[in-house]
Write a structure and sequence with these properties.
The structure holds two protein chains of two kinds.
Chain A lengths: L2 H10 L7 H12 L4 H11 L3 H10 L11 E6 L2 H5 L2 H12 L12 E6 L11 E3 L2 E3 L4 H8 L8 E2 L1
Parallel strand pairs in A: 1-2
Antiparallel strand pairs in A: 1-3, 3-4, 4-5
Chain B lengths: L5 H17 L4 E6 L2 H5 L2 H12 L5 E6 L11 E4 L3 E3 L7 H11 L8 E2 L6 E2 L6 H4 L17 H6 L4 H9 L2 H11 L11 H10 L6 E6 L8 H8 L1 H15 L3 E6 L4 H16 L15 E6 L9 H8 L23 E5 H13 L1 H5 L9 E8 L5 E6 L4 H8 L9 E6 L5 E4 L9 H6 L8 E6 L4 H15 L5 H18 L7 H15 L3 H4 L3 H18 L15 E3 L9 H5 L5 E2 L7 E2 L9 H5 L5 E3 L1
Parallel strand pairs in B: 1-2, 7-8, 7-10, 8-9, 11-15
Antiparallel strand pairs in B: 1-3, 3-4, 5-6, 11-12, 13-14, 13-15, 16-19, 17-18
Helix pairs in contact in B: 7-11, 7-14, 8-9, 8-11, 10-11, 10-12, 11-14, 18-19, 18-22, 19-20, 20-22
Classes of the chains: A alpha+beta, B alpha/beta.
């Protein structure tokens, strides 16, 4: 993120300290994570202690302090997905990608995440790959999904 | 141009209705593009309809949000006949237009088939999933394009606002809401009218109203569907509330994971402002009200009222003690009235139809209807709206269509992470605020997760503790450490490391967590554990004493074997096994080498002859 981009975001929120959450959301939307340098600059410009910014950035699930991979794989672990086997799907992905939820593969290709519920419970268990919903998942299907198997028609959300 | 009086609003409504009448009974297509149907491919169907129809104006094409029957999405309804098509794909689009829209012929393969009778049902009205419901609040979704305020107007929108502003005093509005018996739909069930009254009476010139759309309960999505599908009903409710309380500023706090809800409520606010239904001197009444949208950061605790207000103020979402109520000192230490989406959406209905009418629906202590999200091991997954007091049996079997695959019902979990599991023996329980609490669960925001015999109740309790230990804000030791300790004990039990006394230990920690935590989320955090112990103690004991998971879920306690009689030696499991734990050749029944098996379940999944057994 350039200094000018940050300045634009801060300006949009009128340099208000009470808009910190919204400012962080805008930064995250642009860079897909919160770079330390940007947070330091934000702290300077708004005269807010860096600790307070980190307090927010680490409290809310929406933020990531590390860069994400090229592809984001999100496993819904809401209750409906859980009782329909989300844990098996998640285990399969953890094994296949060799990462835990919240981590990115060493080749920076995939980031694995979980979400508490996407409200698409009729499609449980649900996996979202780069914003495309893939419902009624089973272990083998999620593997072919990762391999880009075209048989799994992707549904845009 | 902003409308300056109730007459101008009525003139506009008449104009919209006359225009629609002049067009006659137009042939039309209604497509649900709510998040559930989108997940099932509604966006592609939308594009296909747009492309096929081109600019032919003879057919009206409307895209709405959630109709509720998510199991069957994407849903398409052909008007004026009301033909209901399910599971529509882009490939079906030309046929729907050519046959049903143009000629009125029904396409049999797209119709809903009643699993009980095997008969197809052509119209929405006749489908059992819908017939037993009473869709006061949620029913309009099906008729509305949420991005068009005219649709809401045509259905009588903002009439209740006019009634409140010009024919009722703020006190009368509060009295009406009190008499209606409306209780907060977000979880607590506090009487809405009493909350409004104490906020009105609180000292201070500046007061706030807030709409809580931080729907954090996993498995519940009715607030999102209302916000996405009928945002003006929520705005109208908030306007009436603000007038009653004496507030001129409001906030809508929407969960981070709900981008479509943010978009649609944003459009609704813009349109209402343009029409003069938000802003200064609304309809010439002298009443001012404006609304701001806040996007959450993805924290379950942010749905708690004081935590939500802290989040709006730019702090982390930590609750505070409520010795002084939010209605006295809430957002920025001003009197604040917070209600959830569904509560707000009930308000215009009550004002328009009257408290007596509303109070005639429901039970003694719980009036009106409630929207539930019926999900999990159930045939008809979706959102349903039923009168308070309907029994669980009617909900699960009559509306939900029972359990798939001929399996046996085990429990229904209500109230999300703050609620509990209700067993089969209580299926005739009338569902309302008080009855659910008596059964050791709670209404919560209305999530109903159905579980069958293949769901392990200890695993469910562990699931909720995992959720809560992650989501506890950490302010109170009792909640932060209590949920963690409960999780650790449950984790050990599910791994075969449970010991004598664990159940009593869980009960003790559970009690302590509930007693010593500040907010309602900590206070109810032990419910999933305590309610499963109360009704499914035998399952806990099987895990602890016999080291057995009766439902066949907890991987450390189960073994996968291949039934040699059922095995057709096709080799699919052998090829699919990620650890090469399966041996066998053509025509020789396969075997699992237990030492290598990681119990991932792949073999069971791929087996065409159901030969893989779990015990």
């Amino acid at each position: 993120m350039t200094g000018a981009q940050l300045e634009n975001i801060l300006k949009k929120h009128d340099y208000q300290k009470s808009s910190l959450l919204a400012i962080l959301q805008d930064v995250q939307a642009l860079d897909n994570y919160l770079p330390r340098k940007t947070l330091e600059a934000m702290s300077q410009r708004l005269q807010v202690p860096l600790t307070q910014i980190y307090y927010l950035a680490t409290f809310y699930r929406a933020f990531s302090l590390t860069p994400r991979g090229d592809h984001l794989v999100t496993v819904c672990t809401g209750t409906a997905c859980h009782v329909k086997g989300a844990a098996t799907i998640l285990n399969t992905l953890e094994r296949e990608l060799a990462v835990q939820p919240g981590e990115t593969t060493s080749d920076k290709k995939y980031t694995l995440e979980t979400v508490n519920c996407l409200g698409s419970c009729a499609l449980a268990p649900l996996v979202v790959l780069d914003g495309h919903y893939h419902g009624r998942m089973v272990g083998t299907k999620v593997l072919s999904l990762l391999k880009g198997d075209k048989k799994d028609a992707s549904k845009k959300s | 141009m902003p409308l300056k009086s109730p007459d101008e609003l009525e003139q506009l409504r008449t104009k919209i209705l006359e225009e629609r009448k002049a067009q006659g009974e137009k042939k039309g297509i209604v497509l649900c593009t709510g998040t559930g149907c989108r997940g099932a491919g509604a966006s592609e169907v939308f594009d296909a309809f747009k492309k096929a129809l081109g600019k032919k104006s003879a057919i009206e094409f409307k895209s709405t949000c959630c109709h509720g029957f998510c199991e069957r999405g994407p849903i398409t309804i052909v008007e004026p006949l009301g033909i209901f098509y399910q599971g529509v794909t882009p490939a079906d689009v030309p046929q729907i237009i050519a046959e049903t829209v143009t000629k009125g012929q029904v396409i049999e393969k797209l119709l809903y088939r009643d699993p009980a009778t095997g008969q197809t049902i052509p119209t929405e009205k006749a489908i059992p999933f819908y017939t037993k419901q009473n869709r006061l609040v949620f029913g309009n979704n099906r008729h509305l394009d949420p991005t068009r305020i005219e649709d809401y107007m045509a259905m009588g929108g903002y009439k209740a606002l006019v009634k409140a502003l010009f024919h009722m005093s703020p006190e009368e509005v509060i009295e009406e809401i009190k008499r209606s018996g409306l209780r907060g739909r977000g979880g607590g069930g506090f009487p809405a009218g009493r909350k409004w009254e104490s906020c009105r009476k609180a000292h201070g010139d500046i007061k706030y109203v807030i709409c809580n759309c931080d729907e954090g309960d996993p498995g519940a999505y009715m607030d999102r569907s209302l916000m996405e599908g009928n945002p003006h009903s929520v705005l109208e409710g908030m306007l009436i509330g603000a007038y009653a309380i004496g507030s001129s500023e409001g906030y809508v706090y929407v969960r981070n994971e709900y981008p479509l809800a943010v978009k649609n409520v944003g459009i609704a606010i813009e349109q209402a402002t343009k029409m003069g239904l938000l802003g200064k001197d609304i309809l010439g009444s002298g009443f001012d009200f404006s609304l701001v949208i806040n996007k959450g950061g993805g924290a379950f605790v942010a749905g708690e009222s004081s935590a939500l207000m802290a989040s709006i103020e730019g702090y982390v979402a930590e609750p505070r003690a409520k010795h002084i109520h939010m209605t006295e000192s809430g957002l920025w230490e001003r009197p604040t009235n917070l209600n959830n989406v569904e509560t707000w959406a009930n308000v215009p209905v009550i004002i328009e139809k009257g408290a007596d009418w509303y109070a005639s629906i429901g039970t003694q202590g719980s009036k009106g209807t409630k929207i539930f999200s019926l999900v999990g091991k159930i045939n008809n997954t979706g959102l349903i709206e039923v009168p308070m007091g309907m029994t669980l049996r009617e909900i699960v079997y009559d509306i939900g269509g029972g359990i798939p695959g001929g399996k046996r019902f085990k429990a229904v979990q209500t109230g999300g992470p703050s609620g509990g599991c209700i067993p089969e023996s209580l299926l005739d329980l009338p569902v309302d605020f008080d009855e659910l609490t008596k059964a050791g669960s709670m209404m919560g925001s209305g999530g109903m997760i159905v579980m069958d015999e293949s769901t392990c109740m200890v695993d469910v309790a562990k699931y909720f503790m995992h959720f809560l230990k992650d989501e506890s804000c950490g302010k109170c030791t009792s909640c932060r450490d209590g949920t963690l300790r409960m999780y650790e004990v449950l984790d050990a039990i599910t791994k075969g490391k449970g010991k004598e006394g664990d159940i009593e230990f869980l009960e003790e920690i559970g009690w302590m967590t509930a007693e010593a935590s500040l907010c309602a989320l900590g206070g109810s955090a032990a419910n999933p554990v305590l309610s499963t112990i109360r009704y499914f103690r035998d399952e806990y004991e099987a895990h602890i004493s016999a080291k057995r998971c009766p439902a066949g879920v907890c991987t450390e306690l189960i073994t996968f074997t291949i039934d040699p009689k059922a095995c057709i030696a096709c080799g699919k499991c052998r090829k699919g096994c990620p650890t090469e734990a399966i041996t066998g050749e053509k025509k020789v029944p396969h075997k699992i080498v237990q030492a290598k098996c990681i119990k991932c379940g792949t073999c069971r999944e791929v087996c065409p002859s159901d030969a893989v057994k779990v015990a």
